[in-house]
Design a protein that fits this description.
2 domains; three-stranded antiparallel β-sheet; 55% helix
Length: 390
């Protein structure tokens, strides 16, 4: 069964014309690369919607499974549709023996993002052929937590666990990591994170996935490429640095002095500012509340550091106001739940896999090869000199 898609159009410049026939925007800023019906990011208003539904409503009232269904099929599921999807997730969570063997062979010191990339590649090698399908999207999204939890337990000398069919996606992830049925507050917090980060317009990893899909490659190859993009510190690799900052500050009393010293020495204060949002990131607003409920002690430090950082950054550059981004309270929430820093970005991928696969399906449903041009800046018309005369 295939989800609804939209057509794809050539790259279009939406910024003010510079008089050139070939717009050259650093980082493709202001360039429309595709059409999508999946999510809409309104950076000026600070609004995010999935297929027209406001992210605040979704974060407070839905499960990750409902969001995955919405992205793949185009509408929120009824009870039967949701139950069917949950059963399919439960069936697909088991890791095939050949892939488990690959995970066992990896070094215990490997980066979990590299492990995830390798596991998806191994999965693609044994199961994937032909055009991307929703069935493949379900199987891959269901297995992301299993891949990560299996490696996490193995590197700590523990055997991987089988999932519990009665638990949802967020709860199973926590169970597979720890071997304990998780606290309800932690499940709510992690589920909200999974909902909030499932898709976010044409971000770097999603664009990467769509580029690969546009070549008519398979879904595993597109997701492997997306994982590689998400690993970068300018995209998904920043939350762990927020945790490092909060750990270094340690207490509320240390916060102002630490921040002033960091700013004076030119260090970047992590968790503030966003490429798209010109006001508060709506996802940060939701995660702030989740941290407040899940771990009041962690919240007290994170909230005070947030207040001071915003004040000091405004002092440093008056009139250039920065806002808290999703990475700040994402890191605080992951720390409150008990995740190690190197699981932050992989957990981002657990959520974003639903969005990646939805974009891959959308791209392949009405495909046009993504093939932009480049402005050549090298030398022109050089005279060739044979090797023996150089």
């Amino acid at each position: 069964m295939r989800g609804p898609g939209t057509g794809n159009k050539p790259l279009k410049d939406t910024s003010t014309s510079t008089g050139t026939t070939k717009p050259n925007k650093g980082g493709l800023e202001g360039v429309v690369a595709a059409t999508t019906a999946l999510s809409n990011v309104d950076g000026m208003a600070g609004r995010l919607t999935y297929r027209g539904y406001d992210i605040h409503d979704l974060a407070r009232s839905t499960t990750f499974e409902e969001i995955a269904y919405l992205l793949w099929f185009g509408h929120l599921p009824n009870q039967k549709e949701l139950s069917d999807l949950c059963r399919r997730f439960a069936t697909e969570r088991t890791i095939p023996a050949s892939i488990m063997q690959t995970i066992r062979a990896l070094s215990a010191t490997a980066d979990p993002m590299d492990v995830l990339r390798t596991a998806v590649s191994a999965w693609g090698a044994v199961t994937i052929s032909g055009k991307p399908t929703i069935e493949q999207a379900i199987a891959l999204t269901a297995r992301f937590p299993s891949f990560l939890a299996a490696f996490h337990r193995l590197r700590h000398g523990q055997e991987p666990l089988e999932s519990l069919p009665e638990l949802g996606h967020a709860a199973n992830y926590l169970y597979l990591l720890t071997g304990k049925v998780p606290k309800e507050g932690y499940v709510r917090g992690l589920n909200a994170h999974l909902v909030l980060l499932a898709d976010h317009g044409m971000n770097a990893s999603t664009f990467t996935a769509r580029i690969v899909a546009s070549t008519e490659s398979d879904i595993a190859s597109a997701v492997v490429a997306a994982i590689g993009a998400l690993k970068g510190p300018l995209h998904g690799g920043a939350p762990a640095k927020v945790q490092d900052m909060l750990r270094a500050i340690g207490t509320v009393d240390n916060a102002e002095g630490w921040l002033r010293n960091a700013i004076a020495s030119g260090e970047r204060i992590m968790g503030f500012g966003h490429r798209v949002y010109k006001t508060e990131d709506p996802r940060a607003e939701e995660l702030r509340e989740m941290v407040r409920v899940a771990d009041p002690e962690s919240f007290a430090l994170a909230h005070r550091v947030e207040e001071l950082a915003l004040m000091l950054l405004e002092e440093q550059k008056p009139g250039r106001r920065l806002y808290t981004n999703v990475e700040y309270y994402f890191a605080a929430l992951m720390h409150a739940i008990g995740f190690s820093g190197d699981l932050f970005t992989p957990t981002f991928a657990v959520s974003r896999c639903a969005g990646w696969t939805a974009h891959i399906l959308e791209q392949s449903s009405n495909n046009r090869l993504i093939r932009p041009e480049a402005d050549y800046t090298g030398p022109i018309s050089q005279r060739f000199v044979p090797l023996h005369k150089r």
